[in-house]
Amino acid sequence: MTHRILVLGAGYAGMAAAVQLAARTTRRDDIEVTVVNARERFTERLRLPMAATGRQLAELTIPDLLDGTGAHFVRGRVTALDPDGKTVRIDHETTLPYDTLVYGLGAVADTTVPGADAHARTLDSAQDAELLATRLAGLRHGTVVVAGTGLTGVESAAEIAERHPGLHVVLLGRGEPGAAMNPKARAYVHAALERLGVEVRRAEVVKVLPDAVELAGGGTVAADVVLWTSGTRVAPLAAAAGLMVDERGRVVTDATLRSVSHPDVYAVGDAAAIRQGYGTLHGTCQSGMPAGVHAALSILRARKGKRPKEFRFGYYHTPVSLGRHDAVVQFTHPDDRPRRIHLTGRIAVRYKEVVTASPWPTYGRMKKMPASGAFWPRGGRFTRVAR
Ligand SMILES: Cc1cc2nc3c(=O)[nH]c(=O)nc-3n(C[C@H](O)[C@H](O)[C@H](O)COP(=O)(O)OP(=O)(O)OC[C@H]3O[C@@H](n4cnc5c(N)ncnc54)[C@H](O)[C@@H]3O)c2cc1C
């Protein structure tokens, strides 16, 4: 009997799971790995702020990466899950059966604020970034409001201000940019934004209009373009299928990354609520890839009748670009609190580029040497705490 493993979503986490599974089962005919993704092209989300100002993204395709592993690729949009019948609907028309499912559909910008869906742009895909790049290139003067002072907002505002000095860029959000960094690194972020001419405003956007954003407490900011980077949300697919999800709709996993309600389902990346001793992981590439690898190893151990190991992960850095020529790398404790040490300037730019470029070669290495993907900081005492 062939055991069918279906990986939903070939982003940073799903791809890591798929390659790890495929590489370890290449010569086995008792396991079949199939990867489903909405697009054939791998989306380098970490590069989308740069793509939004015209940088060409590399043509990285999922079938190319899987080539030679024996894994199958299905291009299509997952439209429903039936965890009891163990099937997945693709594009409302095809049904794929599975024995084990890896749920890695990621998250998108949370555009639930009124008007955001209709009038704001997002950076969820290469196409979003390319459309924004075209719009910005056609705008000689005017105001771009970047809503959301998180790291994606900071990176996007800095990129746009640097590439389009004729535009007025307003970075607008509830929190302080660089809030999670140490005071010196945070001050560096502020100075860089000021140097680039980005106006930083602490305010909450309550509505997006065709030509402005409305703020809590009254007042508006006129905008020719609004880029929405504030918060993320996951697809309601898992919740609709009856999987146990958290308050944000993410699949709740046990220590081995298995759904707590459906043992045939594993969840990874932004779509999963993965507990560690210090709290639930927040969406990053640095945690998503290890989670993908770990889920693959858990599945294979369970297949062999061995007890899967606990997933333990500790954060180690937050690299943030500030345009193409400046960056900050905040080193962190395993629970993501900032350490005193950080890098700035050209060395930080180089560090950030190495990190951003690393996933694809990492997958390539894993294809040949699966064990090479299994190295990440386990978090020491921070992840030893009982759940
Ligand atoms: C602009 C931007 C910049 C970022 N910068 C950084 C950074 O510098 N460092 C960092 O660590 N993190 C960064 N992040 C966060 C990081 O990109 C995410 O944490 C990471 O992508 C999560 O990986 P994932 O595999 O869970 O989801 P994703 O990488 O989003 O992959 C999900 C995949 O599922 C596919 N998919 C979704 N729904 C469906 C469906 N219904 N059917 C079929 N396929 C579907 C998508 O097309 C995608 O390929 C950034 C995010 C954004 C938006």
From TrEMBL:
Cofactor: FAD
GO molecular-function terms, A-Z: NAD(P)H dehydrogenase (quinone) activity
Alphabetized InterPro entries for the sequence: FAD/NAD-bd_sf, FAD/NAD-binding_dom, NADH-Q_oxidoreductase
Name assigned to this protein: NADH dehydrogenase FAD-containing subunit
Segments forming domain FAD/NAD(P)-binding: 4-280
Gene3D superfamilies linked to this entry: 3.50.50.100
Family to which this protein belongs: Belongs to the NADH dehydrogenase family.
Top-level taxon in the UniProt lineage: Bacteria
UniProtKB keywords: FAD, Flavoprotein, Oxidoreductase
Biological process, per Gene Ontology: aerobic electron transport chain
